[in-house]
Each structure stands twice: as structure tokens, then as C-alpha cells.
Design goal:
Length: about 130
Amino acid sequence: QIQLAESGGGSVQAGGSLRLSCAASGLTFADYHVAWFRQAPGKEREGVSGISRKGVFTYYADSAKGRFTISRDTAKNMVYLQMNRLKPEDTAMYYCAAGTPRPLTAAHHLAVPARYDYWGQGTQVTVSS
């Protein structure tokens, strides 16, 4: 059974940092496209960052560029999202996702939820002003 489990969320003040982690059982992240999405109350799920299986494409939402960094540790089978200079508008539930590595032609394709087959339950990030 394939499961993804996020951790590392919490409550921080604006300007602070968090590192989200995603652990997988039943799949190897190195064999998949992986991404982080977030969803705030009343809003659609948004692709925050993603990386293709071979690392050819990396995606960051405009709101994340320069502040967030996605990484994959193949030895530990973990995916991370380092989030710096957090803002109140970053408050959301954050989800890790893994998708079958279908061909990509552009980085922004990594932000499409339909490309992902497996999802975690989410970890809450709350940023106060």
C-alpha cells in the first residue's frame, strides 16, 4: 500500500522558516515526479513547487520563488520543502504528491494536480503577522 506522510508544519511568525518533510512507503520518490501543493480555506489547491523525476524540470509558483526550495533525498526516500521568509498568505494545508513520470514539456505542468497519483494527508502551516 502506497502512503505519503507530511510533517514539519506548525505555527510561525511572519519572516520565520519551516521545513516540510514528506516520507513515502510503498514507492520510491526517485521514480516519480514529486510536488508540494497547498490549499487555504475557500481557495483552490495550488501547486507550490515540483520537481520532475530526473530533475530536468523544477517548478515554483510565483509566490514561492526566492523563498521556497524543493529537494529530494533519494538515499532517505524523502522530499522536502524549505520555506523561508514566510508570510501570512502562506497559511494553508500543505500536501505532498507523487505522480507517474509522464513526459513533461514545461515546468509549470508540475503544478497540475491531475498529474499526481498519490497524495499525503497534509500538514498545516499557519503564519501570523
